[in-house]
Amino acid sequence: MKFCKTEGGNLPKVGVLALQGNFAKHAQKLQLLGIPYQYVKTSQDLAKCDALIIPGGESTTMSKLLELSNLGCAIQEFGTTNPIMGTCAGLILLSRKVDDPRVKPLGLIDISVKRNAYGSQLDSFITPLFCPFTKNRRCRGVFIRAPKIGHVAKNVQTIISQNNEPVMVRNKNIIALTFHPELTTELSVHAYFLGCAS
Ligand code: GLN
């Protein structure tokens, strides 16, 4: 499914999980791309969407909130066919295995994850990344208390690496990043997710 403006007619709607964290910045990107979006707080909200973004934030908190509602199960079901992109805490939630028992991952992409693997907030950093889907092959990587990806299953493709470690991975409709594309001025990662990268 393509979400690009050029498709014309009724554009599909992108949900942004809005339980906690950095959801407003993702919504801004969708607005800039001219793509209809809706904040998702319940499974009823999710049912109105064709794709979903799970933002950064605090994965322990988001996991608890997903468990308390039936939204976690609804996202698992949704992710069997619909596009989902998770950034930072969103990647942690999408993974299969997390080093912190307080997080119950959704298991939608077969990777293992170590939380806060670069250190504390003070060890956050911004670095240029080699990005195969942009014209100039570059994008900015904003890493904030970022996780690291450990095991990557055979069916998972690494799209972007940093220091030989995967930081953006994909298995078909599921895309997960350890960094924050919503905090740069670039639109390329969101455009790639929605299938409208130029
Ligand atoms: N360290 C956070 C966590 O483990 C993720 C940080 C982020 O999303 N920027 O949930």
Could you spell the SSE succession in H and E letters? EHEHEHHEHEEEEEEEEH
Number of structural units classed as domains: 1
Largest sheet: 7 strands, mixed
Strand order of the largest sheet: 2-1-3-4-12-11-10
Q: For the residues shown, what is the average pLDDT?
A: 93
Helical fraction equals 10-25%
* CATH architecture label name: 3-Layer(aba) Sandwich
Question: What is the β-strand count?
Answer: 12
Strand content is 25-35%
CATH superfamily heading:
Class I glutamine amidotransferase (GATase) domain
CATH class equals Alpha Beta
**Tally of contiguous helical segments:** 6
* Category by helix and strand content: alpha/beta
Would you kindly provide a written description of the structure presented here, covering whatever features stand out?
This protein is of the alpha/beta class and 198 residues long. The protein contains 6 helices and 12 strands. It has one domain (14-193): Class I glutamine amidotransferase (GATase) domain (Rossmann fold), CATH 3.40.50. It has helices spanning 23-32, 43-47, 59-68, 71-78, 89-94, 188-193, and strands spanning 14-17, 37-40, 51-54, 84-87, 97-98, 111-114, 125-130, 138-143, 148-152, 157-162, 165-171, 174-177. The chain has a 7-stranded mixed sheet. A 3-stranded mixed sheet has the order 5-6-9. Strand 7 and strand 8 form a beta hairpin. The model has no long low-confidence stretch (mean pLDDT 93). The protein binds glutamine.
